[in-house]
Amino acid sequence: MDSNAREPLEGAVPPPPRAPGIAGLSTPYKVVTALALGAVAVASCWHLALVFLHVAPSNTVSKQHARVIDWWVYPEFEQNWKLFAPNPLQQNIAVEVRAEVRTDDGLLVAGDWRGLSAEDGAAIRHSLLPSHTEQNELRRAWDFFTTSHDEDNKSTGDRGALAEEYLRRIALDRLDARTPAEGRIVRIQLRGATTEVAAPPWSDETTDTKTYYRELPWWTV
Fold it and tell me: With 80 as the cut, is the pLDDT of residue 160 above it?
């Protein structure tokens, strides 16, 4: 037997086991945890309330606080009812981007078109837990832009500038994250490739499945 080993004192009462969960924390940590949980609860209630007012029929409260609701909801949390529309979307829309880069030699070089939608599709294909961002962020940003601009890419409402800024920010984030450093990005350009979904074999409907492009102007970074 090891002579340095300490034998428990006869009759000594072992300390009580520590309580599980938050109750087992010290008082300062309990206070911090309670404050954090309270902040999360308040933020969740705030978010749900504003989203509810956004999708609910127009009422006195939503009219009175319309500016606050729009500021919180657009563009990241916008809601729509297209899933339940009588005539759901029957198009495949792919968003592509290219960048004009100033090289170290001072030259301006325009890169090739990159399929951002294709990259998102490859990231979620065969994934058991696909990212919500990769599924919807780019698609919703493009839809937000096209519904707030006319065919000449001119804003048709108060949220046109916000839609352009949102789409531009997403494209730049994708380029910075996935493009090797080849110089400094000076301008970017986006385009949408729209292809009608072919009619099923049993249908007599004739569908034009040619891909049509909508190019946006160059945007200075």
Answer: yes
